[in-house]
Amino acid sequence: MGEMLAEKTCTPCRGGIPPLSREEADGFRAQAPNWELRDGHARIEHTFRFRNFKDALDFIGEVGRLAESEGHHPDISFGWGYATVSLSTKKIKGLHENDFIMASKIDRIAGRTAPPPSHPQ
Questions:
Q1: Residue 10 falls within a domain, yes or no?
Q2: Containing domain of residue 85, as a range?
Q3: Residue 57 and residue 51 in contact, taking contact as beta carbons nearer than 8 Å
Q4: pLDDT tens, residue by residue, 30-69
Q5: Stretch 81-93: mean pLDDT, rounded?
């Protein structure tokens, strides 16, 4: 895992492989530390904060374009001032390196679009 995740490209997952173990997922989280393991360790999730609805919507648009180019699609919910992004690999019913690649790339998008946090959430 020497290469930065955000520099990698998602690879097609055809299934037939086990999902990441908890230890493997924790290792990848070192490059996406704001993402929380959920459902045991079957998915990762992060809620991003924004100044308003338009900023959240613009962020979602960028994440959508990224998802299409990478061929890896997150679950997203959003509203006024927030967007929650959840990643897992459905074909293996758990986490894959692709989920952390996407998380790292989404963090980069958020770094360009999100205001600095005003208080911890």
A1: no
A2: 36-113
A3: no
A4: 989 999 999 999 999 999 999 999 999 999 999 999 999 9
A5: 96
Query: Do the Cβ atoms of 108 and 6 come closer than 8 Å?
Result: yes
| Inter-residue contact 36 to 24 (CB < 8 Å) | no
Report the first-to-last Cα separation within the chain, whole angstroms: 30
Residue 12's region, left for phi above 0, alpha for psi from -120 to 50, else beta, is beta
At 51, which amino acid appears?
R
Q: Is residue 7 part of a domain?
A: no
CA distance 98 to 9: 8
Whether the predicted pLDDT of 118 surpasses 60: no
Whether residue 35 contacts residue 45, with contact meaning beta carbons closer than 8 Å, is answered with: yes
The answer to whether residue 26 sits within a structural domain is no
Angle between helices 53-70 and 97-113 (to 10 degrees): 140
